[in-house]
Amino acid sequence: MTVGLNVTGSSMLLNISSDVMSESRKEREFKLREKDILSAATTLFLANGLDSVTVADIAKATDIGKGTIYKHFTSKDAVLAQLANNFSYDVLQKVKTIDSTLPAKEQMREMLEMCFMAHVEEPLMSEISRRYHQASFFERLPEQAKTHCLAIEGEYFVILQNIFSKGIENNELPNASIDELLLGAHATFTGALEMLHSKQFHCFSESPSISQERFIKIIINYTMTGLFGQSMAGDINTSGESHE
């Protein structure tokens, strides 16, 4: 693969070999086909659920052979992994738009709201992401998918570390271990997602039924209280309605 540069007088001719152009076209076609595969898989998962769809179904819906599917993805699990990574990456780009000059508590609340709403608005991707992060599923994935996932999660944790560091520096947060703050926030968020997936928004039989929106507000307020020591009084009353 070569690029020849010929200079004659004041003119410069750039000769690009045909194999470079051909490879570029092949790369574009490969990416477009992969996008088609993921789109078809998403449609099938929405219609039939995650478990009943096969690679053969995806190949048929995309109108290509199974062998071609395997050139892109080693298994159906790898397809699910790519969808989960794409979803996580898209949410990350939204999180990156949060103004880093805001106080730490405002950044944290905005991040929580963005992340919860992404899972609510895209329940299929939320369910795929949930399955993706189960240890038994994650362990059998190709190394490339694992590396991609860990890289994206690493960016989330850097953002949270920056928020917590700023909060500690400005006395918004106690001078605690950032690792412990990360663990607590992550555990609360993932636990709340499990409840969202189960559609069970109360723990005791005598608790009143609440809406999904109200549940998310309660969890965000609870998380903020745990991190920043803010009182939830005035946010939630005994009937579960907001004073806001």
Task: Give the key terms.
single chain, Tetracycline Repressor, domain 2, 244 residues, Arc Repressor Mutant, subunit A, 2 domains, disordered C terminus, disordered N terminus, mainly alpha, 2 strands
Model description:
The chain is mostly helical. It has two domains: 19-72, Homeodomain-like (Arc Repressor Mutant, subunit A, Orthogonal Bundle), CATH 1.10.10; 76-244, Tetracycline Repressor, domain 2 (Orthogonal Bundle). The protein has ten helices and two strands, in the order E-E-H-H-H-H-H-H-H-H-H-H. The chain has a two-stranded antiparallel sheet with strand order 1-2. Strand 1 and strand 2 (11-16) form a beta hairpin. Helix 4 packs parallel to helix 8. It is globular, with a radius of gyration of 24 Å. Residues 1-16 and 231-244 have low confidence and may be disordered.
Concise synopsis of the structure shown:
By secondary structure, the protein is mainly alpha-helical. It has ten helices and two strands. The termini are far apart.
